[in-house]
Amino acid sequence: MAFDGNFVHALLGELNSLHSGKINKIQQMDDTSMIFKVRAQGANHNLLISAHPMYARFHLTDHKYEFPFDPPMFVRVARKHLEGGIIETIRQIGNDRRVEMHIQSRNELGDPIKRILILEIMGRHSNIIITDADYIIQDGIKHLTPNNNSRTIMPGFPYTAPPTEPKLNPRTADIESLTARIDFNRGKVGRQILHNVEGFSPLFVKEVEYLAGYFTTETIVPAIKEAMHQAEEIKPVLYTSGDAEIFYFTPLSHLGAPDATYDSLSGLMDDYYHDRYRKSLIRQKAQDYVHLIEREYDRTERKIEKLKADLAEAEKMDEYQKYGELLTAYMHQVKPYDESIEVIDYYTDEPLSIPLDKNRTASENAQRYYKMYNKLKTRESSAATQLERSYQDIKYLASLLHQMESISTEEEVEEIREELGEQGIIKNNRRQPKKKKHKIQLHPYRTTNGLDVLVGKNNKQNDYLTSKKAQNNHLWFHTKDIPGSHVVILHTEGEIEEQDILEAAMIAAYHSKARDSESVPVDFTKVRHVHKVSGAKPGFVTYTDQQTVNVTPDRGKVMKMAQPEA
């Protein structure tokens, strides 16, 4: 992606429809994002403004969002100063990713007032700030306290721009002086351009370099002018065939033909960001459960270490039994207040020193050693059983942590919550009304030969897929001794070719903890050979008659096989 200063310039042209529009309602979805409902030119518009650390942006949106019942403090301030106001202008500061929205509003007495809404798109330092006409801050969605080294964003303080080095605006004649700022002997000319030109992104600099062929004193400024001239064509594009998805407001020669085009920049951004934003919210909701699982994982690890120590101590039980037997045999030799006794060990015919409690009789010392023996014998049996169970628990918790990484829907969060409640990791609130059970959603893929494949991304989905959805003659896949998903080809053996097996194995490897590894071993067998062990943790099965293939996960190939979910 490249939400740079050039993109902002293009987007503002699209938002001209909001000029003279009335702000009817302001809502805040979360700590960083807001919706302005604007009536302009006879139509209703929803303007999304966000200072999210990863998804800071502004654009028109058609998506529906949930809003908290109790509105945050910042939206209350925004409503006080901006609701009912008329948008006079929306302007970009230079060619930077800073935008000012000038609004004519009224105070509580009905007197006209002017307010300025400032959006700063700067990654994790992004902010939304409301000031008066003299740039005195009324509030900011993120506060910077007076002891901050750079500037203060607090009510009552004068607004100051983010501290940045002076740069050249490529939309003015200032760009002609760029050559004097570039040290061609130092190299990394592209990075030097970024440091000296306002609103350029690494993506756009690559386009400039592509047009220049090679950066020299003669080519650098003409190439920038040519790139800026080509960028006057507003044609929203999306590139998806590379390592990462890239969007821009105009086609880029160095990337070739785009994979998709859009009618508007807002439509492009709505599609690009909404799914990512929704997933970030879902992961945020799931994070509390991640902490619970991690805490349980750490507790189980400590338990394993303690049980190991108990077993190590239990190795002394035979020694304590011997002490008891020898003391019983040589009891007549023990004198009052002896702290030890030297005897002949009739097992080895060698002398042996037995420690004694001087405050106990010989008989009491012997009984003490027998009790210690019996105690350790019981502890050994219990510790061995608990240790085996703890190893199963740690394996189960590790699989849960892996599953939490791939959560993408609220239903999957609810499935994890239900499972944690069933396993006693969290307490179910009895007062809370039971939620209506939802249909378990599996994840469809299709091999290049057209065979359908289903994947379970958590234990509930895995159990449903293997035990209920799949038929006995279907082929089942799972990474060998590695936490991962259950994968099933929904076809009989005669329909399945070797290519289908390799592709299904790749899907299984991709949906496992070994996603970033090479030559991942994947077992496959018929579903009839997969069995759920009574009393085992959710998602745990045993299987026989398996074969193993080694595959290297390829995200691009897996994504091409992915099908829309019903």
Automatic annotation (TrEMBL):
Pfam families, A to Z: NFACT-R_1 (PF05670), NFACT_N (PF05833)
Gene3D superfamilies the UniProt entry points to: 1.10.8.50, fibrinogen binding protein from staphylococcus aureus domain like (3.40.970.40), ibrinogen binding protein from staphylococcus aureus domain (2.30.310.10)
Keyword Oxidoreductase included in the entry's annotation: no
Any coiled-coil regions, as ranges: 283-317
Key words, A-Z: Coiled coil, Protein biosynthesis, RNA-binding, rRNA-binding, tRNA-binding
Entries under InterPro entries matching the protein: NFACT_RNA-bd, RQC_Subunit_NEMF, RqcH_bacterial
Segments forming domain NFACT RNA-binding: 443-535
Family to which this protein belongs: Belongs to the NEMF family.
Protein role: Key component of the ribosome quality control system (RQC), a ribosome-associated complex that mediates the extraction of incompletely synthesized nascent chains from stalled ribosomes and their subsequent degradation. RqcH recruits Ala-charged tRNA, and with RqcP directs the elongation of stalled nascent chains on 50S ribosomal subunits, leading to non-templated C-terminal alanine extensions (Ala tail). The Ala tail promotes nascent chain degradation. May add between 1 and at least 8 Ala residues. Binds to stalled 50S ribosomal subunits.
Subunit structure: Associates with stalled 50S ribosomal subunits. Binds to RqcP.
HAMAP family attached to this UniProt entry: RqcH_B
The protein's name: Rqc2 homolog RqcH
